[in-house]
Write a structure and sequence with these properties.
The complex is a heterodimer of chains A (about 110) and B (about 375). With about 110 residues, chain A is mostly beta strands. Helix content of chain A is about 5%, strand content about 30%. Chain A contains one helix and nine strands; from the N terminus they run E-E-E-E-H-E-E-E-E-E. The longest helix of chain A is centred in the middle third of the chain and has 7 residues. Chain B is built from eight helices and 21 strands. Chain B has an eight-stranded mixed sheet. A six-stranded mixed sheet of chain B has the order 8-2-1-12-20-19, covered by helices on one side. A three-stranded antiparallel sheet of chain B has the order 9-10-11, with no helix packed on it. In chain B, strand 10 and strand 11 form a beta hairpin. In chain B, helix 1 runs parallel beside helix 8 and helix 2 packs across helix 8. Chain B starts with a strand and ends with a strand. The chains are: A mainly beta (about 110), B alpha+beta (about 375).
Chain lengths: ~110, ~375
């Protein structure tokens, strides 16, 4: 289910969101429905997933913070390539996205 | 109320100067062009607090400054991620190792507990360095801190001691009467003062030029980058193979150096070619770096003197203005003690360390040239 309220429709700097047809990709093994062309972080948020990885030392949850590619907090592994910024990388059908999330954090927060 | 002293420039040296002056009961105002202290070189360096391998004339200053850093950390409760994990100058071959061995007695004679380490001793200290490294000159009392937190901390110490710090206030002129600075002109008004201390790093050139003095300071950027966090792979600050690497508390690696001779000037534009090259060199020293990504890179602006050592002196032709600059990349470490010396000299006290070797006169004909017409 897409939750329209969690999508940024028109960003003051980045402009209107670019959303194509609904497609399925994978996050930590679970299927996620996103829109082709929107960024991975937005699709995850729309599916209720805000935690994209855990801090290596503290185990604290990490996710989208700046939303414009600057802070690197939302970095995930995409199709085997580490440290991709979820807030910049467009959703494509079948993408395999993973973040190292501590088990106790769960996937939704 | 008019200050007794105006300090120009809110880097680590200016904040330290303001602290030691205020602590001595002097009314001191620090003017800083940026909206916060420590936004230029003092906040943009690798945070090295180290004496290893410095010129013999500079080592006592570095040792004294490290003691002040320890005091800021221990007695004043500074929270600026200060770790005395040691520093190593790396040798890649017998020739470099021999050079490090030759440098050792002089450094030891100056009170620095350095030793050359090789073989198992080296691997025990730094097990993840590559086989490129055959030995190192190790200084256990050296270390590093978070330079942004550290400079802001010393700025707060100065304010707590009674100094007034005016941020967002850039110097635009100096009023000189009968060989003395009587007023400092800023973007937020004029300040009458009894004395001036200039700690403006690479901007010291243009400030000196306001009173007709040309200093032999060359301005150059330095480039630094930080990786994603990794499991602990390095404990010390290591320098060699033309790069340096040090760990951060959060597990990231901070590295820099590399490309020879970046373009002179104030530009902070990063170059992907430089970054790629220094990252490659760093990974040759510490192969575990290959499993990290670079999070970001940045540049700072450094002031170099002709002999790459701090210049600390009174400004020629001005009776009541001191300056220090030209730290040539060592300024973050030296800042606290340089500030203390500047405060002592401003107060007419005997400085805690001899300063003659830091004065312009040591440079001979390279010291001061006539100012160009404004």
């Amino acid at each position: 289910m897409l939750n329209e309220n969690r999508r940024v429709e028109d960003h003051p700097i980045l402009g209107p969101s670019k959303r194509g047809a609904p497609v399925t990709f994978w996050f930590n093994g679970a299927p996620i429905t996103g829109c082709e062309g929107e960024n991975i972080a937005m699709a995850l948020w729309a599916s209720g997933i805000k935690v994209m990885r855990s801090d290596l030392r503290s185990g604290e949850p990490r996710g989208m913070y700046c939303g414009i590619g600057h802070c690197f907090e939302c970095r995930v592994t995409v199709n085997g390539v580490p440290d991709i910024r979820a807030c910049l990388e467009p959703v494509r059908s079948g993408l395999i996205v993973s973040g190292e999330v501590s088990p106790e954090e769960g996937t939704s927060r | 109320m008019e200050p007794d002293v105006v300090v120009i420039g809110g880097g680590i040296m200016g904040c330290s100067t303001a602290f030691f002056l205020a602590r001595a009961g002097v009314r001191v105002t620090l003017v800083e062009k940026a909206e916060q202290v420590g936004t230029e070189a003092s906040g943009r360096n690798a945070g090295g607090i180290r004496a290893n391998g410095r010129k013999p004339a500079e080592v006592p200053l570095a040792i004294a400054s490290i003691r002040l850093w320890q005091a800021f950390n221990d007695e004043y409760g500074g929270q600026f991620e200060y770790d005395q994990h040691g520093q190593m100058y790396l040798a890649r071959n017998e020739e470099e190792l021999a050079a490090l061995r030759r440098a050792t007695p002089t450094l030891q004679g100056l009170g620095l507990g350095v030793q050359v380490v090789t073989g198992p001793d080296l691997r025990d200290l730094a097990p993840n360095l590559s086989s490129l490294v055959v030995g190192a000159l190790y200084c256990p009392t050296d270390g590093f801190a978070n330079p942004i937190l550290a400079t802001r901390f010393v700025g707060r110490l100065a304010e707590r001691a009674g100094a007034r710090i005016l941020t967002g206030t850039a110097l635009t002129g100096l009023v000189k009467e009968s060989g003395r600075i009587t007023e400092v002109v800023t973007t937020r008004g004029r300040i009458s003062t009894g004395a001036v201390v200039c700690t403006a790093g690479p901007w010291t050139n243009e400030i000196a030029r306001m009173v007709g003095v040309k200093l032999p300071i060359e301005v150059k950027p330095n480039y630094i980058a930080v990786t994603t966090p990794t499991a602990p792979v390095l404990r010390q600050f290591v320098s060699g193979h033309t790069v340096y690497i040090r760990p951060a508390r959060a597990g990231n690696l901070i590295f820099g150096g590399g490309a020879a001779g970046p373009a002179a000037g104030f530009s902070k534009a990063s170059s992907l070619a430089t970054l790629r090259w220094s990252a490659g060199r760093a990974a040759e020293v510490l192969p575990a770096m290959r499993h990290t990504s670079i999070l970001r890179s940045w540049a700072g602006t450094l002031a170099y003197s002709p002999d790459h050592m701090i210049i600390l002196d009174s400004l020629p032709g001005v009776a009541n203005m001191l300056f220090a600059t030209g730290c040539s990349g060592h300024g973050f470490c030296l800042g606290p003690m340089a500030g203390k010396l500047l405060a002592e000299l401003t107060l007419g006290l005997t400085p805690s360390l001899p300063v003659d070797q830091f004065r312009l006169a040591r440079l001979g004909s390279r010291a001061v040239r006539d100012a160009e017409p404004a």
